[in-house]
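Renewal narrative, Specific Aim 1. Our central claim is that a sequence can be written position by position from structural information alone. The example that follows is taken directly from our test logs and has not been curated for this report. It begins with the structure tokens describing the chain, in the order in which they were read.
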């Protein structure tokens, strides 16, 4: 039972409005409190008198209420709370915190969007981790979720790469290792050479035209081979990150339809031809001019996104389309949504944008163009080595392969938790030295609490007997936090914020560590021991469920 929600519902029925509760600084003042100051103006009464009148109206078997001056203080039935929370966790286990009802709504989430022929750097991890976490949260709360990835496998950036390879590396063999780094290096080189000699751009434009027309068979063959290498490298990364996709969209498949849409919009008068290019003037909507086709007729990603939106809704019959896209694309996404509306696309209002602010290094902004970034493969090696060193400090004789396997899980937890605990609207300055710490507000810190719970439970048999009457305030505080998990999941779902779950897990771990420090478990007398073992099991289960929603694996031993 969610006691907080029940109290809110009781107050809502009386006051005819939504209310927020506070947690008193002293448990002797109750488990929850409602200040009546804001009601004084509405009822034209002293808040002390309002509190007294409200307390007289509230009768509930699950909690008692007292008025202390202008506050209503609520004291929940702790024994009932203990039994309901612990028994529900013991019964539901992996399903604890999930929604009971299956929703019919089909939701598509587009995320990651790593372009072929470029690097997958740590900046991509944020959007990939967020998209996968949101998919898991929505599934956990009953939605039918389709994960999709839209990757740029054609366009000017690919033309630059193909041009650079053909002009300066044509006789070189493809490397057998570090493919991701090699591909990224060619793209960075292309950008630098084009900056040094601007007349090269004419050659790149020619390749871009040939790429779109598909007439140059040798060029298309090279494109297919290198595209395949890029996508294979990405798949290994997605496996590491625990991200999966039900369908992949590529720019190539929406090029033709995109050009058709652009010309249709011209006929409808929504778009126009300006100096040979097709544009749509969105300035009266404070969204600037949006170019759909270049003057040479090649398509831009603007019109490809229009074709993609049409394809998503028509082919997959989705009810909602969520775009997890970088905050730098804010203008582009709103231009897209407005154009969908202007072209009469019926599902335009069913598109949702979740902006993800960029990841920066302490030295400044990352860029695929300049190579100023941390390539995922390099970062992975570095953080795994760090994790192995920490494991070997704790387990002197551990097998190297076992340590490496465990280190990968710790490394991914380190990266993903650091990305997901942050507010998505804030630029993340990624300091690897801080992120790799095993203490503090980190993924390994939460994993370690789970491992500690496992260790305790291995030393004693869980009887599943609960004696609520023998517990103390520390026990009840932890149980109260456990009971709030469902509400936390719903908040994360409603606000599209996995950070809500990350913050909750940190609070749960801190309270568990306090509980474990002050309350004997294995050495307690029988009834207390059995009940506290149920609490430890419940903490372990909720940590597992919460970490799973963040896309992070648990570890039985650190």
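The sequence written for that structure reads:
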């Amino acid at each position: 039972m969610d006691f907080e929600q029940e109290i809110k519902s009781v107050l809502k029925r009386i006051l005819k409005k939504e209310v927020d509760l506070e947690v008193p600084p002293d448990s002797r003042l109750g488990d929850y409190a409602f200040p009546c100051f804001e009601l004084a103006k509405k009822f034209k009464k002293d808040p002390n008198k309002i509190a007294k009148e409200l307390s007289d109206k509230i009768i509930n078997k699950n909690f008692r209420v007292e008025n202390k001056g202008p506050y209503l203080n609520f004291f929940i039935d702790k024994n009932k709370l203990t039994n309901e929370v612990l028994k529900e966790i013991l019964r539901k286990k992996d399903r604890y915190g999930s929604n009971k009802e299956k929703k019919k709504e089909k939701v598509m989430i587009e995320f990651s969007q790593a372009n072929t022929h470029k690097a997958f750097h740590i900046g991509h991890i944020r959007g990939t981790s967020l998209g996968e976490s949101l998919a898991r949260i929505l599934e956990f709360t009953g939605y039918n979720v389709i994960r999709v990835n839209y990757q740029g496998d054609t366009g000017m950036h690919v033309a630059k790469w193909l041009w650079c390879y053909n002009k300066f590396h044509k006789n070189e063999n493809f490397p057998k290792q570090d493919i991701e780094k090699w591909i990224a290096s060619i793209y960075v080189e292309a950008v630098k050479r084009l900056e040094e000699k601007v007349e090269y751009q004419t050659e790149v434009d020619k390749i871009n035209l040939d790429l779109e027309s598909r007439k140059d068979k040798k060029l298309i063959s090279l494109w297919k081979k290198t595209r395949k290498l890029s996508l294979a490298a990405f798949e290994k990364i997605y496996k590491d990150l625990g991200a999966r996709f039900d369908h992949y969209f590529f720019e190539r498949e929406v090029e033709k339809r995109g050009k058709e849409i652009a010309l249709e919009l011209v006929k409808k008068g929504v778009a126009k031809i300006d100096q040979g290019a097709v544009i749509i003037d969105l300035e009266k909507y404070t969204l600037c001019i949006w170019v759909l086709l270049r003057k040479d007729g090649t398509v831009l990603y603007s019109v490809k996104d229009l074709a993609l939106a049409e394809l998503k809704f028509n082919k997959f019959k989705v009810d909602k389309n969520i775009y997890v896209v970088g905050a730098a694309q804010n203008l582009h996404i709103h231009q897209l949504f407005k154009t969908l509306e202007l072209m009469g696309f019926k599902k335009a209002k069913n598109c949702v944008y979740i902006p993800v602010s960029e990841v920066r290094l302490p030295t400044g902004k990352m860029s695929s163009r300049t190579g100023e970034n941390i390539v995922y493969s390099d970062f992975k090696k570095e953080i795994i080595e760090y994790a192995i060193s920490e494991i070997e400090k704790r387990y002197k004789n551990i097998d190297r392969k076992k340590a490496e396997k465990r280190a990968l899980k710790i490394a991914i937890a380190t990266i993903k938790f650091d990305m997901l605990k942050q507010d998505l609207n804030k630029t993340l300055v990624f300091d690897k030295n801080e992120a790799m710490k095993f203490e503090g507000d980190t993924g390994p810190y939460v994993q370690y609490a789970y491992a500690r719970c496992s260790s305790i439970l291995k030393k004693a048999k869980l009887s599943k007997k609960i004696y609520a009457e023998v517990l103390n305030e520390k026990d009840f505080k932890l149980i109260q936090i456990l009971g709030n998990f469902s509400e936390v999941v719903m908040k994360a779902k409603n606000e599209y914020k996995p950070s809500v779950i990350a913050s909750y897990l940190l609070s749960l771990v801190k309270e568990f560590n306090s509980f474990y420090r002050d309350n004997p478990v294995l050495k307690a007398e029988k009834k207390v021991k059995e009940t506290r073992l149920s609490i430890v099991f419940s903490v372990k289960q909720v940590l597992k469920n919460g970490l799973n929603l963040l896309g992070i694996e648990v570890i039985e031993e650190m």
